[in-house]
Design a protein that fits this description.
mainly alpha, 0% strand, 6 helices, elongated
Length: 184
C-alpha cells in the first residue's frame, strides 16, 4: 500500500499538470505551450530507457529521493514561470522525476509481493496511481480557483516533497523492523 500511496502522489502532479498547464499558459500569455508536452514525452522516453538499470544498480532509495526532489522542484519552477523556457525546463524535470519514480515503485512493489502475487501488486499500485491522477485535477481545480495557478503548482511541489518524507518514514520503519527481527 505504501507504494500505491507514493504512486498516487507522483500521479497527482501529472493530473494537475496535464489538466491546467494550457490554462496557466493562456493566463500568463506564454505562447507555444504545446512544446511542454513534446519536451515531456521526449524526457519520459529518455528516462524510461535508463530507469530500470538505475533501479537495479542503485536501489529504490537512490532513485526515488532524487526523482521526487526533481519533480517537486519542477512544480516550484513552473509556479514561478512567466515565459516558455522555464516552463520547458519544468516539463523536462517533472517528466524525468515521474518516469524514474513510477516504474521504480511499480517494480519494487512487484518484487516485494513476489511472483505469485504480481497481479495484486500491479493492480494495487495502479489503483494508487489512478487515484492520484483523478484527485489531482479535482484538488488542483479548487486550489487554482481560490488561490491561482502558481499556488496550485507550488502546492503540488510541496506534496511531492511530502512524498519523500512519507518514503523516509517508511524506510526508517522497515529498518527498525529488520533490526528487531530475530536472527535466523
Amino acid at each position: 500500500l505504501i507504494y500505491a500511496a507514493l504512486a498516487a502522489i507522483v500521479s497527482l502532479s501529472n493530473g494537475v499538470v496535464a489538466t491546467f498547464v494550457s490554462l496557466f499558459a493562456q493566463e500568463r500569455g506564454i505562447p507555444n505551450i504545446g512544446l511542454f508536452f513534446t519536451v515531456s514525452a521526449v524526457s519520459m522516453l529518455a528516462m524510461r530507457l535508463v530507469g530500470g538499470r538505475l533501479l537495479d544498480r542503485y536501489g529504490l532509495s537512490r532513485v526515488l529521493y532524487p526523482a521526487y526532489a526533481v519533480a517537486g522542484l519542477s512544480m516550484l519552477l513552473l509556479a514561478a514561470s512567466r515565459t516558455l523556457p522555464p516552463v520547458l525546463v519544468a516539463s523536462m524535470l517533472r517528466s524525468l522525476g515521474q518516469s524514474a519514480a513510477q516504474p521504480a515503485l511499480q517494480a519494487t512493489c512487484i518484487r516485494k509481493l513476489g511472483p505469485a502475487r504480481t497481479g495484486v501488486a500491479t493492480s494495487t499500485f495502479f489503483v494508487g496511481a489512478d487515484v492520484g491522477q483523478g484527485l489531482g485535477p479535482i484538488i488542483g481545480g479548487a486550489v487554482s480557483e481560490t488561490m491561482g495557478y502558481s499556488a496550485m503548482y507550488a502546492g503540488t511541489g510541496v506534496v511531492l516533497m511530502l512524498g519523500m518524507v512519507l518514503y523516509a518514514w517508511y524506510e526508517r520503519r522497515q529498518r527498525a523492523r529488520q533490526s528487531e527481527a530475530p536472527a535466523s
